[in-house]
Predict the 3D structure of the following.
Amino acid sequence: MALVNLLKALAADGQLRLVALAHFNHHLRREADADQEFCAGIARALGLPFLVDGTDVRMLASREHRSVEDAARTVRHAFFERARMEAGADVVALGHTRDDQAETFLLRLLRGAGSRGLASMHPRNGAIIRPLLDCRRDQLVEYLVSRDIPFVQDASNADVGIPRNRVRAELLPFLRERFNPSVVDALADAADVAREEWRWLDEAAQELERRISRRDGARVVIEGAGLSSAPTAVARAVLQRLLTAGSGGRALAFETIDQAVELSRGNGTDFDAPGQRVQRIGSDIVLTGRPAGVVGRPLPSRHGIGRFRYPLSIPGEVELREVGCVISAEELVTAPARAVARNSAMAVVPRDLCGTALAVRNRRPGDRFRPAGVEGHKKLQDFFVDRKVDQRLRDRVPLVVDDADRIVWVAGHAANDEFRVTDPAQAVIILRLKGVGGAV
């Protein structure tokens, strides 16, 4: 009510144009419908359009497995944007105060937020503005009372079971009395400092994100080396941006961000985060989003997975999450007796023919190799046709290649006969194809 009257005065002075009032009904309180009607009456008195919408936020939160507060904020701000477009407005003004800012800072501090969270509410965030963010709540109440302007108290403000109300009714008065009479201003000032620090950090993170990440269909691929070599604060900010985008805007715990940072440094294992799977594939960190309405780990597609290429250490192994398998390499000083009896899940190749490094990739145009019993080289495409490999599955077949990018083994199918073991006394590499969690 203070905000709308102040905006009305500025509009009368020609400093802005007040085009509509907007109200969102969360249906969380018995008084919610009466409050909506109160706001509708104010709009009628001012001769302004009244834009209104609402939903059962508690039911929405339960359905989407998120907190009531988070669900309410998401659906409310979506409504604000729709209302802005409908009214033809440049911005939507909200009535948050300096006291609200202090409460937000404390709540986020208690949850363990960094600079981004401690920045609290911004005076302007896109099309959302908060003109009263430097005003104290008691000043606004005094303004309303002195002008006989009616207003409504939200009855739920007395419910100390709600964390914000508990901070307002219990923690802030305690801090004011026992530690700092000006604690609200001190906390709001700290939010200003955090906001400027975050602005710098976010710019650095955006620049790094542009350099080391790319989108590949439903996946975001991040260069692990670029991420792990960045200052920890910048790396966390990059992951905060990308993981938040993949989560559908849901809040992320510090542990989730830090777990992803550690994964980029080669520590820890793949894990599920809100709305996505976080994996280390080769040297990259890959975020794979879940389709809308899907709960649990995303399954790899049976086709259209895009190109991949990962280094294969000797000895070592690489997990190909795209195709749900593992390729391993083991070095032996002499060839085992079964070296000539290769099968689809194993190949034995001479160590000295493999060069300094191996890699695992999927097919590329022009790929050729020499299957056993074939004169000269054969196109990989023709090999797949002869073997009746489903066209939709051909991009999923792993190829082990040497440092000259020659195909050593078409995993699960055939080895290149140029890499056949001819001397039982020579050192060899045993290549194996396994499904994730067991042998193929």
